[in-house]
Structures
1.
Amino acid sequence: MLETYIPIGIMIFFGVTFGVVMSKASEWFGPKNPTETKLSTYESGMEPVRSAHERVSVKYYMVAMLFIIFDIEVVFLYPWAVNFRQLGTFGLVEMVIFIAILMLGYLYLWKKGALRWD
Amino acid sequence: MNLYDIVFYFFAFVTLASAGVVVFSRNIIYSAFALLFTFFGVAGIYVLLNADFIAVSQILIYVGGILVLMLFGVMLTNKVIDVEMKTGTLQTLPASVLVALIAGALCGIFYVTDWKIVRGVSAPATTTNSLGEMFMTTYSLPFEVASIVLLVALLGAAMIARKDRLPQIKNQK
């Protein structure tokens, strides 16, 4: 039973290894000649005006909340997609109804301006 | 000790160790990031229990969604630049007593319960196939109702989001 998960294991292994090796290799092998300009936050950009350690806007939280709802929708899509061929048209119609109900909510959000950033 | 046990102890270790970091870390941001590994370890244990759909949901919803929500929640609580977000220890005695009671009750239930072990029946390799089939045929109504539940959550989020959005637009006109 565990054998079915070997590809996932390999992918996680290579994902982690690649990330660690790449960042550490550039740290170990790269030349380091720091100057004051290089160490500034944006080397060729604007000077930072104030500290980044500020309270972030609640709008980010809103976007995260909406994201979770559509995330759960994707979880429902997943078992349908696995059986897509066997279920055929009936399954497709059911999924269209499912998404249409959520689309109503999405349109309401859109109209209400919850997706606007200002 | 076969491969299954080794993998189980690996995920159990990941879960417990990172949960320890969540609880004992002095910096709340580190706690939130350690929670990522806790959720991941729990997902691994779900896989070992042949609950692959639950494992996928765990990763998609908890690792992908709830954790982001928590991180934003942590960022929202940072009031002043100079104040570091630290966790402290207070009310040690009542907390220990309460935790000991809850842990004792859980362990007691664990030992008292008559666990039914079915032998000779092999669990299906994957659950997602049969789950999807049942969602679409036998339980198609609960499936559609789930979308209404999500719709209500969406509308609730919209209500919290922009209480004053529509009046503002009217004022501008």
Note: Residues 168-173 of chain B have pLDDT under 50 and may be disordered.
2.
Amino acid sequence: MSALSTKAIRARLNEADLNRRLVISPLFDEEAQAKPGQAAIDVRLGFDFCIVTASSFGAISEFPDGQEDLGFEPLYRREFVPLGQSITIHPHQFFLAQTLEYLRLPPDLMAYVVGRSTWGRLGLIVATAVGIHPSFAGSLTLELRNLGENPLTLFPGQTVAQLFFHDVVDAAGAPSQEISPQAQYAGAIDMVPKKLSDKVTHDKLKRLRALI
Amino acid sequence: MARLSAQVSQQRARTYPANHKGPHLWLDLVQGLIDTAQGYLHQANAPGISDAEAFSLGKDANLLGNNAYRFLQELEGAGADQIPHPVVGPFQRWVSGLGVNDSIFFRSDHVANYELATFPLLNSLSNLNSPSQSLLDAMAAITWPFRRVTVPSRAMGMLPHFAIVGHELGHAIQDRMQIDLKAYAGAFQDSAQKTAARLQADGIAFDQQIQLRRQDALRSWVNEIWSDAVGICLAGPALLFALGALFELTGGGWGLGVSHPPHIVRLRLALKRLQIGAPSHAEVYAAATGSALSEKINSPHVAELPTADVLYQSLKQNMTKPDAAIAVELIPVIEAIAADIYSEAERIVGLNPEMTYRPPQMKEDLSEHLDALCNLIPPIEYRHAGGVRAVSLAGVLNVGWAALLSKLNEFPATAARDGYDETAAKMEKLQELLLKAVELSEARRKWDDA
């Protein structure tokens, strides 16, 4: 599986054909974020955070207390941190953040998001859901966890992660043109997850549960 | 008073969008009032003071406390969790670009309409006895009058509609308008005679009071057209679309009264202006979307005006006969003055060349971003060989409207959402993308400016 060089990534950013264009926007400092000779592009920390707070909810479950619909929104407290201000993540704290950049992948590219090693060495884990599917469109949700022993002060606009891109090919080996606009996170803007399972899985689990 | 102070402290701890200092200036003012009231209570407890004096001071303190509480309420909806926060920075750019230095804050409310409120409090506050130092400091830090822009809350506010804020900001600079209305004395006199004739037929004498009301009505109408004109300068066709949507939401009637000229007249005048130029905004829009710009493009139910006689007979069922006659007979007057009002607005707004949204810019916005938006790429920045620059708020609004009105069917289907049909889900997705565009284009600007 081949990875795109930085030069190839930048060529895709300037692609005239919308169907082939890779969008990572805004790129405040393209030269610094996409360094020549590498194979990745740096992305920055955005402004919106969802902080997991203590709540009266029980275990997070597909079927909480017999209720059908699970809403995750009450599990989070939202914080907006503008450019110039900061937010501190304390040891062992977990919260959701977004990339500042909006991403739109063409159907023939996928990506991996990886935390920058500088932050990793300080204990900050940036992403756990690391694969980004072709045709993804939205700001990327980052799952931040401070595994270190010191609080870390984070400023929106700091580079926190890198994206590595790979070609996606169809069964014949040609660039994929398959688009899945119904994917759960196509055009995703919000960080809060919507559901644990797709409808088919959910309904199957429900029937299996009823058999017991 | 201690409870009020605690509430002010709570409000200070909130995040206000775009680091906007307006809410903090307002809270300083509230705290100054509370401190002044506490000073009165302190005086009332001083040894040797008479019961009557103590009672009077207590009453004054109570009054100030009530005002402080009311002022706190005025700030409701200004927090980053209440107002669609990405819009505040770009709105402030409009305010600053128009040379409005008055202190201001933005808030949202659960309303469908937009409002520019003005708080000319300086004189009344200056007359307070024994003001606290904190009140004096707060008053000095404010550029008076204090202004407040209200937009519909998240639930009500579709971003493209926010072009109406351009109209509201027009009201903030209406005092700069320099139009010699004497040039239209003939039309105004002719309208007076027709008004008098209508009223005479109904047994009402055309007196000085009615004449003064006509003058007030004309002033209000001129201010409305002026504000439309400023909005057109700032936002281009987006204001026409947003006005149309607003009129449609308010019932689609004539919208005619002594405070406002008829909806259809306002739309027609705005469209006329958008058809000027080579290319004009209208031509650019038509070329990009394949749809002609028309006065009722986004307001099919706004009513055409009937004949003046029919209009008068209808209006006087719901308003006084003098008001009905005044409104009917002012229509030709405002139509005669409108071109000058628009030209004057263009002159004033054009004093800062960056503030006017011109057809070539619209052409670039639509050609770069309209199809891209339909491919889930928000209009954040332009990438040209010469570099990268941010899209303006007006650009986002116009691309958004063009997509909403002409390309929504090209929008990719989105994952089903509870309570949304397919069209509504697409509109919601468009709204999210546009808000993202406003947020990130503003971030781009701030980063570049730093």
Note: DSSP finds four helices and twelve strands in chain A.
